[in-house]
Design brief:
The protein is mostly beta strands and 87 residues long. The strands form three sheets. The chain has a three-stranded antiparallel sheet with strand order 1-2-3, with no helix packed on it. It has a domain of 53 residues: Single Sheet (N-terminal domain of TfIIb). The model has no long low-confidence stretch (mean pLDDT 85).
């Protein structure tokens, strides 16, 4: 188990410092680092919930596009290349 010092990837003004605990290559916990003089160890619920989101079975892993022919507006998986552009 090791602790990796990093920063939050979100674009809010706090720029929270994070202590991320990793075990066997997997994030186990996210804590706010007390080294940041502004946030002093605070991390918002979204930042603290990152491990759950990263490893969720519902996480979108591939690009999707809305099917215009379907009245329900459902999304379907598409190729990484669309109209000559690679996503």
């Amino acid at each position: 188990m090791k602790v990796i010092k990093t920063v939050c990837h979100r674009d809010c003004p706090d720029t929270c410092f994070l202590d991320v605990t990793v075990e066997d290559g997997k994030i186990v916990s996210v804590r706010g680092s007390k080294e940041n003089p502004i946030t002093r160890g605070f991390v918002c619920p979204r930042g603290r919930g990152d491990p759950k989101r990263v490893y969720s079975r519902e996480r979108v892993l591939y690009p999707h596009m809305k099917n215009r022919e379907n009245r329900m507006g459902r999304f379907g998986r598409v190729n990484w290349e669309f109209h000559g552009k690679v996503f």
